[in-house]
Every structure is written in C-alpha cells, then in structure tokens.
Amino acid sequence: MIQLVVVAHGKFASGILTSLELIAGQVEKIEAIDFIEGMSAQEVKERIKSVISSEEEVLVLTDLLGGTPFKVSVELAAENPDQTIAVISGLNLAMLLDASFSRLTDEFEPLVSKLVNVAKEGVVDSISLLEQGSTSGEECFTDGI
User: Fold this and answer.
1) Class (C level, CATH) for 3-122
2) What is the pLDDT, as a whole number, of residue 54?
3) Would you tell me how many other CB atoms lie within 10 Å of the CB of residue 135?
C-alpha cells in the first residue's frame, strides 16, 4: 500500500486528516505533519523523514507550491533516489479522499496524475455550476457527503 504523508502550514495537515476520518473513518498508513510557528524548515524535513517508511512508495501531499512543506519534501525525495517518493502541492479534501482509497488499487505514477486532476476538477464556482443546467441549485446539491 502507498504511504500518505500530509504536510502543510499551521494545523492544516492535522485538520484535513480529521475531515478525512469524518468521511472515511480511520485510515491507515497516513501521517499528518503540521508546520507550525517556530519550526524551522530542517525540523519539518526531519519530521517527514522520521515517518516515511523505507519499504513503501510514498506520496507526500502539501498545501502550497513553493512553500516550505513542498520544498523540503521535494529535497527529501531528491536525496533518496532509491525510494519512490512523489510530492504534490495544492492539497484539498477531494485529493486526499481520493488518495486514501485509490492507493489501494492504483499504480503509483497513474495515481499521482489522477490526484492532480481530481484536485483541479474539484474547484468550481457556484455561478458557473448553476448556469450549466438548472435554474435551481437544488438539483446540484441533493446529497451531501
């Protein structure tokens, strides 16, 4: 199974993990690392290194392209060329939910591409959505998760 590591600014990583568990229940082989005030980039990197399993493929999901969680995760991946580690930025709940289930059946590289698309497709605005086919938004939102 592919290991998931979620790394983000503030308490976003642990917060989004609690959202995932609310929807999907307890998820195994997933770690949340919060990059909180006062932590150095090196401390974040060491925390990531400490949770990564050397026997598995690892998918690191980060919040911002170019942010410290992303940069140190990419550095760590580059420093470990013998291990399969991919880093994706732009973390959102749709991406994390899909990652938690799809990693059970999907191959690593196609999963990475799929998650980027899932994240992009999950960003919509209500004006465009409502203009697509109904005068009432009720049809779009009949069921929640």
Assistant:
1) alpha beta
2) 83
3) 8
Q: Is 136 helix (H, G, I), strand (E, B) or coil?
A: coil
Do residues 35 and 42 lie in contact, with contact meaning Cβ atoms separated by under 8 Å? no
Instruction: Quote the mean pLDDT of the chain.
Output: 92
DSSP H helix total and E strand total for the chain: 6, 4
The answer to whether 5 and 51 have CB atoms below 8 angstroms apart is yes
The amino acid that residue 27 corresponds to is V
How do strand 85-88 and strand 3-9 relate by DSSP bridges? unpaired
| For residues 56-76, average pLDDT | 97
Q: Which one-letter amino acid corresponds to residue 96?
A: L
Residues pairing with 35 in the sheet: 9
Return the pLDDT at 63.
Answer: 97
Q: Which residue has the tokens 């909180």?
A: 36
- Please tell me the number of Cα atoms within 13 Å of 103 on its side-chain side: 23
The structure tokens listed for 6 are 């979620």
Quick check: pTM over 0.85? yes
Domain boundaries, the chain: 3-122
Asked whether the predicted pLDDT for residue 37 surpasses 80, the reply is yes
